[in-house]
Amino acid sequence: MTFRARILNWLRVAAWMPVLLTANVAVAQTQGPPDPAEKLMTFFYADPRPERLVGFFDEFGKLPGLRNWQAYQPIVGLFAVVFRSHPSWIDRLIPAKPDAKTIETLAVALRLSSNVLKSDNLRSRFKEIELDERLKSELAGIPTRLASSSPRCGGPRRSTA
Question: Taking a C-beta distance cutoff of 8 angstroms, is the pair 108, 139 a contact?
């Protein structure tokens, strides 16, 4: 490729750069602020008060990604930790009119937090609501209870071997 051809190619690319950059800025501006439920899930650790989770499932139900079954697994983990740490908040965090996915999510979280009796009570309390078999099968691989030790923060993990 000659020097002149290289210069022309560079000028073509340079001419398109403002168009490409403007398109990227326009896309970034249309995404908008994060949803309150997403924001709460992401940053709950910064202020882990259980009262912040009251009404969570009402907001979560509005998210567009609810068909993705993997969205429920982190919620199970979050609520399991909250239920184990704050058992007095369990009844306050369960919505009055949950849907089938919420019931399954909360039942698994309760079981994971070693509240098996409350998990069974939740299922029997809302027995008229048909179970979500797909979500139930997706959550079937979750352990039956949380590990007894809490995760370490700040620093490398030491090997026990």
Answer: yes
